[in-house]
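Whether sequence alone determines local backbone shape is best considered at the level of individual chains. When preparing material for the folding task, we compiled for one chain both its residues and its backbone structure tokens. No coordinates are needed to read the tokens, only the vocabulary itself. For completeness, the protein is quoted in full, as a sequence line and a line of structure tokens:
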Amino acid sequence: MWPPAGGMGIDMSGLLVAIGDSFTEGVGDPHLHYPNGVRGWADRLARQLGRADPSWRYANLAIRSKFLDQVVAEQLEPAIAMGPSHISFNAGGNDLLSLRADVDSIARRYEAALARLTATGARVILVTTFEPRTSRLVQPLVRRVGDFNDVIRDLAATYDATLVDHARMPEFHEQMLWAPDRIHMSRPGHKRMAATIAERIGVPHTLKLRDLVPVEPVDWRRALRTEVGFARDEVVPLLRRRITGRNEGDTTRPKWPVPIHPADGMKRLAAQQAMTTALIHVVDHESPHGSGP
């Protein structure tokens, strides 16, 4: 297990590989200078790891909208092949959003993936799925998430994984930590998650967290308008995507597919990565191979 930080001479280096969906990609924490236009808790944690020890490396294969089976099929083995010391695994949330979600089936497949990850000897970091409490429109989802979180808690104990149970952390019930869609964390939420995980794995951090300010109660008319807007702007588009089968993740690439050293500066590394990708696209476009007569 990872030793606690704080003493001189302690080896704090390692490789963190993050796999999963939008939660781990960083949706809700926009940043123009990071891959895919988002930063997120995993990138913020990686920066802290690099400050603790410049030899730390980091990769992030997570892609928004991915279902559990897609995460397993596309990310699991590539992550393991990197030989990580730490793996963060968060998946299943998009499955729960399906109209006919089978929690028992999701749990069995989640456990199979977790067993594969823990068998590598890496320290596996799990995070419960947040249980939304802000609208009656999502009550069916709340029940599913609660059942799935109970499974995650049991499996974390069974497989000796590091669990961050933010569904039971009072601070994560503050509205300011959540994006307008009420599913993804906001920038302050991602920052607080990065700090929470850093503390849980024994890595010192310099993240400055904003004071939590409770939302003032509103009258019923304003509350009704808010709920109608939420249904129109968030729930209806979500249902439409589920029905059509079209997801943002279908055309999204992993943010950090190859391990980097966060201590080298993640904005600079992102710029280099973007330039390399652009050059590859130019070469592919100008290549005569595969072009018509």
Remarks:
- The chain has a mean pLDDT of 84.
- The longest helix spans residues 220-244.
- The chain is about 45% helix and 10% strand.
- Residues 69 and 109 are 8 Å apart (CA to CA).
